[in-house]
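Researcher: We're teaching a course module on how sequence relates to structure. For the next exercise, students receive a sequence and then see the predicted structure as C-alpha cells, so they can try to spot secondary structure elements on their own. Here is the exercise chain.
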Amino acid sequence: HCKCPLLVLDSILWTPDGAMIAGFVDVSKDYHYGSVQSSSADIARATIGGELTTRPKSLIHVTIGRVLQKAGDAHQNQALTDLMKEYNQKVLPTLVKSIRKDESKHNGCFEMEEVSLARNLVWPGIVCDIYATWKLKCTNT
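Model: And here is the predicted structure for the students to work with:
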C-alpha cells in the first residue's frame, strides 16, 4: 500500500513543443511519491510484462494544455515565441504565486489519491488504454 503524496504546485511552463505543463513537488513528510513510483513499476511489470522506462524524479509534471499546431509563417511563429517567453517569465510565475497564496485553492497543495497505468494510443493522450488503476492510502493532514 502506498501513502498519498502531498503535492504542491511548483511551476507552470509553456514548452517549445507547445505543451503547457504544471510541475508539482512532494512535500509529504516521508516523500510518499517514491513509494508510488516503486509500486507503479511493480504493477507495470506484472501488467505489461516489462519494465517502465521512467527515471526517478522529484518534480512531477502534468500536461495541462497543448498548442497543437504552430502558426503558418515566420512572423506568426516569432510572435508565438515572444508570447511564450512573456508567459514563462511573467504571467505563469505570477499565477503560481497567486495560487500558492490562495487558501481557497488550498495554497496549490493536494493529495494524489489515485494512480493509473496508461498508454497513449493517440498522442497527446487523446485516446489511451488504462491497464490498471489503484487508490492510495491518504493519511496526510
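Model: If you want an answer key for the exercise: The chain has two helices and six strands. The longest strand covers residues 6-14.
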